[in-house]
Amino acid sequence: MKKQLFYLLLAAGVLSACGPAAPQLGKDSVEDVIGAMTLEEKAHLVIGTGMVGTSGDSTVIGTTKKLVPGAAGTTYPIPRLGIPAIVLADGPAGLRIDPIREGDSATYYCTHFPIGTLLASTWNQDLVEEVGKSIGNEVLEYGADVLLAPALNIHRNPLCGRNFEYYSEDPLVSGKIAAAYVRGIQSNGVGTSIKHFAVNNQETNRNANDARITPRALREIYLKGFEIAVKESAPWTVMSSYNHINGTYASENTDLLSTLLRDEWNFEGMVVTDWFGGKDAVAQMIAGNDMLQPGRANQYDMIIEGVKSGKLDESILNRNVKRVLELILQTPHFKEYKYSNKPDLKAHAAVTRQSATEGMVLLKNNNETLPFERKVRNIALFGCTSYDFIAGGTGSGNVNRAYTVSLLDGLKNAGYQIDEALKADYEQYIEAENKKNTPDSSQPFSRFMPVPRPTELIPTTKVLSEQVAKADVALVTLGRTSGEFVDRNVSDFELSEEELQLLKSVSQAFHAAGKKVVVVLNIGGVIETASWKKLPDAILLAWQAGQEGGNSVTDVLSGKVSPSGKLTMTFPNKLMDVASSTNFPMDARANTDVRNKEDKSSSVKNVDYTDYEEDIFVGYRYFDSFGKQVSYPFGYGLSYTTFEYVNPSVKVDNGIYSVSIDVKNVGKFAGKEVVQLYVSAPNRFQMNKPEKELKAFTKTKELRPGETVTATLKLNTTDLASYDEASSSWVVDAGNYKFLIGTSSKDIKAVLDVDVVSVVEKTNDILKPQETVNTIKR
Ligand code: BGC
């Protein structure tokens, strides 16, 4: 209390007469400000203000709540030096803050935009940048400074509970989409935090799991996306992940946070921990993890004690303080931006509605079942999810939105007729099921966790025959939800018996009457499709499309927009076909901290540690190289129209390859096309390289029927490099490379021969495993 009064008087200038005025951030140099700081102030500044007053200073309890309720954290204010608190808030699909405030009749809802996976499935960097602009505007206008997004961990296995927040199994797609998102957000003068750096590919025991992995897989797969994002978009901050990498916590890892991130990639921003991540605050400071969030008293004590005992050199603390101050200097709070608390939610609803349509992937469309156009007016709407649509995943990636447009509402808004009796049956059933499926309050973070979905309702023969008589088409939605803290179970990947039964009976009844069946997948991660995809006539992978989801899906079904999304990951035939499945915690007890202990004598594989034995063979790199069939390949997605590819050519100038091809819309609908450039290296078997790798992609503008555009894709010679562990270098092997231009990883339209000369780039010899990882080889 006394301290508070002291600061108040100082801030008011009442005490300034007692001595020379203290340097002020922004007016005086950062060095002078640091010079005027006490050790205690420095220690406070590098840890957050605490979630429940745990930061080591009771005077800052509730800072976050006071500034922006529901934000994830704030930095420590030091008014006497002109240092304000700044606000950090989640997360990828929109800003996550509390929508309702005590004693305040106003509301603070944010727009729930599509999940990360959907945004990536657009393969449209301009569109993602536009979405980022809108999200960033809400960050600014609701008084936050840094958005804790984007999340770009690799989709290593379909069961990771947070894949919906992430982009792809491929690092190029992840990095390019993340960079576009960062540019969009930061164009508002607010910051981002690219996360979770790095190798946070499972939720099971995420706070302690040790990812045992080779430097090659790290560099080529798990770090590459972050490298692209850092170099192409200069994010204000990077968030270190919870897990260990080769025996050291990411947040305590100097190799990762300093040698790689700063020395090799020239990152100039600030590094923040994931919330409560890591153990040893001194090691974190030394590693270059500048700020610890949300802040704990023992971290404060460790830092003070560390400096006093000499374990932590004060110059290192000063270095980190400097980075925190440099971040603060850029923020709206520092610039005293007068935020409105009134972003244009209507305009953003239109942005989310449009952007969501572009990331939907048409998986199947026999005999032009879609679009409905004028063929369809009455729809038999099945599946609980049709009526209870899923906007996004749970946990910190969720958004407190004002509404979700269900598929029912979306279809009705567009003038389709839905049978009221069937609707009433479903609504009654869902209400009863939801009463049974309450969150498991024995779990520490239950309110952030996914609630089980209703078991699917199987229509009776009577209901089915009534619907067949009345409707022009049947539409069945299958839903999945997942989120932070827990990985998905195998049963979540598979269809349940009830879901299969529903699909079978609806398909049988409608097909018998010559009517068609469409499946909509309202999911956040990959599910099994191989066993049932023959049943319906069309399958639209709608992902979780944000708060306007039902409208967006309807825009695609109706034909208002032709789908142009492509898969950023493979849909395997079976879960165990995925190379990482032998080293993933299948159905493990899913509590983050359950095994967060030092005693490794009883280590449990895939819980305490995970061996990345599939190495660089993630996703299509594995399926292609090891000749495995898949259900839907990486890069795949149909359109309502058809494109022809002609006149491929390649030019090289100063180590930059320009690949061009003419793309012509030869179908009946307007549409956009994603052009994908894969490269197949020489001596792939001897060098243990994947069959092919994506090296560039672009998306055309919307092409009218008959219209042609030239797509140009660029890459550098160094983009062709593989990581050689023996010499710790990026090496481009000389030889004849095949440049493959495709519309998916399996549908190659043109092949170009390119002779390449060798290039070698030396790196630091870092991030090595302590035990040998038995990696698979071609
Ligand atoms: C999540 C982060 C998030 C942070 C703050 C953590 O549990 O892993 O992604 O930004 O919480 O909410």
TrEMBL record:
Pfam families: Fn3-like, Glyco_hydro_3, Glyco_hydro_3_C
Keyword Hydrolase included in the entry's annotation: yes
GO molecular function, a single term: beta-glucosidase activity
Signal peptide: 1-23
PROSITE patterns tied to this protein: GLYCOSYL_HYDROL_F3, PROKAR_LIPOPROTEIN
GO biological process: carbohydrate metabolic process
Top-level class of the enzyme under EC nomenclature: hydrolase
InterPro entries: Cellulose_deg_GH3, Fn3-like, GH, Glyco_hydro_3_AS, Glyco_hydro_3_C, Glyco_hydro_3_C_sf, Glyco_hydro_3_N, Glyco_hydro_3_N_sf
Enzyme Commission numbers on file: 3.2.1.21
Gene3D superfamilies: Glycoside hydrolase family 3 C-terminal domain, Glycoside hydrolase, family 3, N-terminal domain, Immunoglobulins
Span of domain Fibronectin type III-like: 673-745
Alphabetic keyword roster: Carbohydrate metabolism, Glycosidase, Hydrolase, Signal
Entry similarity comment: Belongs to the glycosyl hydrolase 3 family.
Protein name: Beta-glucosidase
Organism whose genome encodes this protein: Bacteroides uniformis
Encoding gene, per UniProt annotation: bglB_5
